[in-house]
Amino acid sequence: MQRIVIKVGSTSISNKESLNLDRLRGLISLIVDLEGLYEVILVSSAAISAGFSKLQLDRKNPLNRQVLSSLGQPYLMRAYNEILAEFNRFSGQILLTAYDFRSNISIKHIKLVIDELIKKGILPIINENDAVASEELIFGDNDTLSAKATLHFGADFLVILSDIDGFYDKNPAEFANARRIERVSFIEKELLKGEAKAGSEHGTGGIVTKLRAADLLLKENKKMFLASGFDLTVARAFLLENKQIGGTFFSRD
């Protein structure tokens, strides 16, 4: 059975000031429907958004973001587990920093835990440990974290669900004739340059971070699928029916 990592961005499961429980429920419903076809590891953002729903701090302040992450992570996991309970399922939390990927021993131990969670029917939910990560040990976005998880935790490919529904030949927000590219087998170096720009106040990623994640995976002959996290029709078709009706598939094949 194939193992996949599904990464969901903050904007896909939260509004400006709260978690979006309907979209969370849709995500969990998809994951439950994947049982028997895939082993699933979930990488979930939105701890800061969950924290902000309880305490409105300035999210541009780095220390405030760590406070909000610490506050919000339990609420995020509670939301997941309350919805999972509707399907008679539950989850296990794994918080990581970049430091955890610097040691083969650490990577091996984390994988053993993930393997056992999956074996016991528990959904592993990974997030960056923003509350304690120092500047040099942060990923800065869960796109990179999810790519690392795919590479090191036995997954075959990564699915990123985002407010970015695919890779386009030009910015679709600026150009009406922007064309979505269905398949990418190579990431040009020029596309990886520059700082990633946040898509919203409660997200840290952007198309650059997703291309960097794809680049990491393609170099190791792994695959990635980028699709909308707002409407899961495209992801469902791709994962359950092996049909690509949208999104962008990154693969060297």
Q: What is the first-to-last residue Cα distance?
A: 20 Å
Main β-sheet description: 8 strands, mixed
The strands making up the biggest β-sheet line up spatially as: 3-4-2-1-5-9-10-8
**In percent, how helical is the residue content?**
25-40%
Radius of gyration: 17 Å
Which class of secondary structure composition applies to the elements? alpha/beta
Total beta strands:
10
Q: How do the SSEs run, as a string of H and E?
A: EHHEHHEHEHEEEEHEHE
Q: Globular, elongated, flat, extended or rod-shaped: what is the shape? A: globular
* Number of alpha- plus pi-helical segments: 8
Q: What multimeric state do the chains show?
A: single chain
Low-pLDDT ranges: 195-204
**Percent of residues in beta strands?**
15-25%
Report the mean per-residue pLDDT as an integer: 90
Q: How would you describe this structure to a colleague?
A:
This protein is α/β, with parallel strands linked by helices. 38% of the residues lie in helices and 19% in strands. The strands form two sheets. Strands 3-4-2-1-5-9-10-8 form an eight-stranded mixed beta sheet, with helices on both faces. Strands 6-7 form a two-stranded antiparallel ribbon. Helix 2 (21-33) packs across helix 4 and helix 6 (142-152) runs parallel beside helix 7 (207-219). Residues 195-204 have low confidence and may be disordered.
